[in-house]
């Protein structure tokens, strides 16, 4: 279950709204709400989030929590085109092993990600991005 799925269920229950009622308020099918809550569907569109925030009397804190949950529920990781080969290899390894990671391993990885950045030594800095040269066409003779 994703963070969004979990939060959607909690918000719906907190505001005492059934799936069918919420679906009607939002203009979606009840089956879509159900699929979101059990995690079959990925995070919803911005339009859905806006409709949800308007349909339920959410506090500013609940609205922030909703946006955070959508972000944390993304199933994709996209690397920038100029990412280093090490970045690509790391993401590939993570993708292969993530589904079998234990809660302890996830906590350890989270702790590493939360470590402060003490500056990057010069030999570990990423290489500067190589700029493409424009092709020069030869003048016809």
Commentary on this structure:
This is Transcriptional regulator with XRE-family HTH domain. It comes from Roseateles saccharophilus. InterPro entries: Cro/C1-type_HTH, Lambda_DNA-bd_dom_sf. By secondary structure, this protein is mostly helical. It folds into 2 domains: 3-72, 434 Repressor (Amino-terminal Domain); 77-112, no CATH class. Helices cover 55% and strands 0% of the residues. The chain is built from 7 helices and no strands. The protein has helices spanning 3-14, 19-26, 30-38, 46-55, 60-72, 85-98, 103-113. The N and C termini lie far apart (67 Å).
Order of helices and strands: HHHHHHH
What overall form do the CA principal axes indicate?
extended
* Alpha plus pi helix count: 7
And the CATH topology of the largest domain? 434 Repressor (Amino-terminal Domain)
Helix content: 40-55%
How much of the sequence is in beta strands?
under 5%
Radius of gyration: 22 Å
Key terms for this structure?
7 helices, 141 residues, Lambda_DNA-bd_dom_sf, Cro/C1-type_HTH, 55% helix, mainly alpha, 2 domains, Transcriptional regulator with XRE-family HTH domain, 434 Repressor (Amino-terminal Domain)
């Amino acid at each position: 279950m994703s963070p969004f799925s979990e939060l959607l269920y909690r918000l719906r229950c907190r505001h005492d709204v059934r799936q069918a009622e919420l679906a009607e308020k939002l203009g979606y099918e009840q089956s879509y709400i159900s699929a979101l809550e059990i995690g079959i569907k990925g995070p919803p569109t911005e339009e859905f989030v806006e409709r949800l925030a308007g349909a339920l009397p959410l506090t500013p804190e609940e609205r922030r929590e909703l946006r955070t949950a959508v972000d944390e529920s993304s199933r994709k990781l996209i690397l920038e085109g100029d990412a280093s080969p090490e970045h690509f290899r790391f993401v590939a390894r993570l993708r292969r092993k993530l589904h079998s990671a234990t809660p302890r391993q996830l906590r350890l990885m989270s702790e590493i990600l939360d470590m402060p950045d003490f500056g990057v030594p010069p030999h570990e800095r990423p290489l500067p991005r190589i700029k493409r040269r424009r092709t020069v066409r030869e003048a016809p003779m």
